[in-house]
Design brief:
The protein is mainly α. The protein is built from ten helices and no strands.
Length: 294
Amino acid sequence: YLSWRYLFFINVPVALFVCVYSIYKLPVTDSSNKNITLDLPGISLLTVCLASFALVVSESSTWGLHSIYTVLFTAVCLLSFLLFYWVETKSTNAIIDFKLFRITNFLTANIMGIVLYICLSSWIIFSGLYFNNVAHYSAFSIGLTYLPFGIALILLNLIIPKLNSRFSKKTLLCCAAISCCLSFVLMSYSIHTRLNFILYSVGTLLFGVGFVLINALSVQHGLKHIPANKINIASGISMMLRWVGAAIGPPVFVTLLSALKATSSYSLAMTQCYLVLAGIMLLLLLLILSCSRN
C-alpha cells in the first residue's frame, strides 16, 4: 500500500535502537590518548572522490565521453583521490593507514572484500531490474528470488566455526570463489533458457554460500599478520572498503547493462553481465589467493 521508497525508513528505528542500546550497554573505556580527533579532511576528500566516480560511471553515457561534465568530474575524482592519499599519509588519525597495505594478506583480503561487495550490490540491483522490467514479477515475487541467498547466509554462519577448524582458510576461500563463479554461470544460463527459476535459485544459493565464506574468512585471513596494536584500525578499514565496493558496483554494472542492451536484447545483456561477474570472481579471487600466505 506504500511506495517501495518507504522500505528505506525501516533503517530509522533500527539505527535509533542501536544508538540507545550502545549508550546504555557498551562499557565506558578510558582512552589513554585524549588527542584522537575525527579525520574530517580525509572523510571529505573520500566522499568527493566516490561521488565524482559514481557520477562519471552512471552519467557518462548520457553526457558523452568527451562532455565537459565527464571530463570535469573525472578530474575531480582523480584529484580528490590524490589529495586524499597525501592527507592520509600526513595525518596522525587517518581513516586509512596505507602502510598496512604493505602486508600481503591484508592487501589481498581487502581486494577480495571489495570485489565481493561489488558483485553483491551489482547482482541485487540489476537482477531486481530484470525481474521487474522483463519478467514482470511483483515486488513480493522479486523478494522471493533472493530467499535462497538469505537461507545460505543463515546456514553457513552456523557451520563456519566447524569448517574453519577442519580446513585451512585458503582452501575455504578457494572453494568460496569457485562457488561464486559457478553461481553466476548458473544464473546466466537460467536467464538464457527463458528463466529457469529452479536453476536460478540454485545459483542464488551458491552465491550465498560463497559470499558468507569469503566475507567472514577473508577478514580473518587479512588480519592474521597485522600487529596487535593495529587490529582495530585494520578491521575498520576492511569493513569500510567493502562498503565502498558496494557503492561502486551498481553504477558500473547498470551502465554496462545499458550499453549491452543497446546492441542486444535485455535477456542477452543480463546473461553477459552475469558472465562478467563470474569471470571477475574466478580470475581475480583465485589470483589473489595464489599470492596470499596461509
